[in-house]
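User: Round two. Same drill as before: sequence, then structure, for each protein.

Assistant: Same drill it is. First protein:
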Amino acid sequence: MPDEVLNQFTPTVDKTEKIDTTKKMKVGIIGTGWIAESHIQSFKNMPDVDVVAAADLIPGKAEAFMKRFGVEGVRFYPSHKELIDNEELDAVSICTYNRQHAGPTIYALEHGINVLLEKPMCVTLDEAIEICRAEKASGKVLSIGFQPRFDANMQQIGKIVRSGALGEIYYIQTGGGRRRGIPNSTFIEDKTAGVGALGDIGCYSLDMVLNAIGYPKPLTISGYTSDFFGTSTDYQSEYDAKRFSVDDFAAAFIRLEGGIILDFRISWAMHLDTPGDTIILGKKGGLRIPSTDCWNGTVGGPMKIYHDVAGTQVETVIPILQNPGKMGLFDRKIRSFLDACKTGGPSPVPTSQILYNQAIIDGIGRSAKLGREIEIVIPEI
């Protein structure tokens, strides 16, 4: 019986298709901070891409960025609007800080440009709704930057759920976090980030489980956030502690459509090595996914299914899978976006799903401020 269970989750062979380089895609990068480093390196790996423009609010930053990565022939702009107004682009990567995700994304879509938007999608649910409306009106491709979706082990989670091995899902525990790992920089101020650990790494663990179960709609949320470590000079420099104005820990109890309960917690800093493994409980079996501190890559170790066979309680270990091919997860994220742009979609990581992810992030923050459970209302797009 364990072998029969394992056989359901045999990975498919990677069929790498030849990339058409007869017409190169013209790409712009908006925001040249830390995450843009991964974007430019990945775009350089794509034979059908020319990075032709970059924008950053800080004078000289975009120029220094491109020089550091050896990219020539790039035109530079002080804002996303000037870049978009003056260039004929096929696509842009939005690599700005969180509070500048919505504006450039909407502006690019309104000007007929495909968008790869880094996670989190934005800061508020209202922003996410406006992004989705702009996408729908534009008819262009908008994909959100969740590279873990392209990991074979992350994909395995969804295969296990869809196989029926767990039966009807009724409870999920997920999250993750670091004992110490506050990123500082623009991540810790409300005026730039808008949200802390909750949006930075919490969005990953939410996507992992929600994607596996088909992204049911969130109905109610009782949320909690704190900033005990970020604001303390015991753990931060005086400069960073003074400007820290987001969450470094968050937790929530979320009711989803279909009667599913989602128990969530995430941390940048705490007095614990992990808040626990991810657990998906169904009426026929349970799945344990070993924890990581971030969930931005793969799982923390071999997963295990707990189920009964002929009245006996058994455990089936799911071996760790190697990702097929030579392409890394970030390159797969970029490649899938480029391919969608060429074909007109569908989006590899669609906003119709990540809208719910953003609704939960927004709802946790609002519930925490109110000190009570709140209802999540998402209008039709």
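Second protein:
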Amino acid sequence: MPFVVNMSSGNRGKEITKADLLAEEETQLLNFQRAVYTEFLEKVEKNKVTVIFQDIDDTNTLIRRAGGSMNRAGLTSLKAS
């Protein structure tokens, strides 16, 4: 379940680079993905949700193997098979 995260320099100072922002976006994207996954798992454990969720690391690995990747715009298109 990929998400899109956009970071801006805001009031971080002039020393922040575009590369710093991109790295922070990737970190926050994965953090947000893990937080949502954890929330769903807690609901499953309390029998409030009756579906099974695939582990996010498995999802991200499958996306990469299929030729996809995550960037500022979210999931890039996958290679046609």
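The chain has two helices and two strands.

User: Perfect.
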